[in-house]
Design a protein that fits this description.
alpha+beta; two-stranded antiparallel sheet; two-stranded antiparallel ribbon; 4 helices; 42% helix
Length: 121
């Protein structure tokens, strides 16, 4: 259900309450130059995580303290947030076309990368 919803909306799940294994995080989180403050680390992680078929476990409370550090997205230029969001949504749109229009089978995997289910959309 989440995957279909994500394809339709591009909605980014709240990273404040999701738990993923270190291996999955390192696989899905692109490496950026040291000191880079681009917002796309969140959007790129979310796109890679979903497009590769991972599903997250969630903790029952939001960890909002993580959003109160210097340099958080609220402190940055709104244009950067907008530009990175546009790039992310375009990637989701392109992926959605590939999966839906091409009737591509999506394989969902566990944290070890092993297939757990398949579905054609």
């Amino acid at each position: 259900e989440w995957f279909s919803y994500w394809l339709d909306t591009g909605f980014m799940f709240s990273d404040q309450a999701s738990c993923v294994s270190r291996r999955v995080y390192l696989e899905c989180a692109p490496r950026y130059p040291k000191g880079s403050r681009l917002m796309n680390h969140v959007t790129d992680f979310t796109f890679n995580f979903n497009s590769r078929g991972y599903l997250a476990y969630y903790v029952p409370m939001l960890a909002t303290y993580g959003r109160m550090h210097p340099g958080n997205s609220g402190d940055r230029i709104p244009g950067e947030v907008h530009d990175e969001s546009e790039k992310y949504l375009q990637k989701v749109f392109d992926f959605r076309k590939k999966v839906l229009d091409g009737h591509e089978e999506m394989t969902f995997i566990d944290r070890e990368g092993k297939p757990v289910s398949k579905r054609r959309f």
